[in-house]
Amino acid sequence: MRIVQILPTITMGDAVSNETLAFYHALKEAGYDTAIYAQNIGDKLPKGFIYRIDEYKDDADFIIYHLSIGGEINNRLMGYKAKCLIVYHNVTPEEFFAPYSMQSQMLCREGIEAVKMLSQTPVMCIADSEFNKQDLIRLGYTCDIKVLPILMQFDDYDKKPSQNVLKRFKDDGYVNILFTGRIAPNKKQEDIIRSFYYYKTYINPKSRLILAGSYQEQDIYARKLRKYIKQLELDDVIMTGHIPFDEILAYYHLADVFLVLSEHEGFCVPLVEAMYFGKPIVAYDSTAVGETLGDAGILLKDKDSKLVAEAIDRIVKDTDLRDYFIQAGKDRLATFAPEKVKKQFIQIVEEAIKAL
Hints:
Elements: E1 2-10, H1 15-29, E2 33-41, E3 50-52, E4 62-67, H2 73-77, E5 83-88, H3 102-117, E6 124-127, H4 130-138, E7 144-147, H5 163-169, E8 175-180, H6 189-203, E9 207-212, H7 220-231, E10 237-239, H8 245-254, E11 257-260, H9 269-276, E12 281-284, H10 289-293, E13 298-300, H11 305-317, H12 319-332, H13 338-354
Parallel strand pairs: 1-2, 1-4, 2-3, 4-5, 5-6, 6-7, 8-9, 8-11, 9-10, 11-12, 12-13
């Protein structure tokens, strides 16, 4: 049987692309003839099994479609002969982008419309979280929806971190507060900056904030963040922009606390990454964040900057509490173990094929 995966964009580093590659290898190991097709293909990707969507000959027995944003490729899906399984990664609500990017706002609006349009198309869906499943139900899906965590490759995190970054910051006595994720309005990096300001000003002046995530210099939201940092006269805030993977690994190694104040996450892969690196987590309970975090960190119902700063201070100073959450994170990793998730994925695919 030939099973192909289709998605709008595949590139190095983002969660959807990483899962698509992991699914490819899982399908290959299970004996399926498989390939990946995308409208946009980034550089430095493996060759030989990733093709442009225009090369697809409508010759698959089954399609796995990754749905996360608007675009013309959503319309193509309805015209293909093969039945499909939709993997739903959620679509960021357009209102987050309204003040900053008309293009991003439009893509998110088109994404929601595409989710609605495709509601009768799949024989089955995979949702990254229960939050995503409920989103599909709200948008009109009546097919069987399986909740499956994102398939992550933990081996990647064992690669050698950047020695330059480690040498620059290691053992300098600073408390390093880290958030990883693209600079985007739904991630609410301004709330992280505000909380860091309170922590650095009133609790611990020897502290540093690292926002490790990509952005374009012309992005209005990124420029707003830089202006906000300047207005607060804040030192020791690092906005890395796009960086190599070994530098991301180094920042995880350096982190004392991982902080998430996002207001929209369909899963939040960085939470699992922080657990893997044994970092205590402080997070705001929004969308799928609490579901992914479980009991592996301090989960806040309110993200008042004083409350967040005091939570950071507590987890830094209280070694028993810190050790408790680090161990809880290690225990929680079993839920996301790659071999376990891979096995569940293949079982879901086989069940979907039987439903044809």
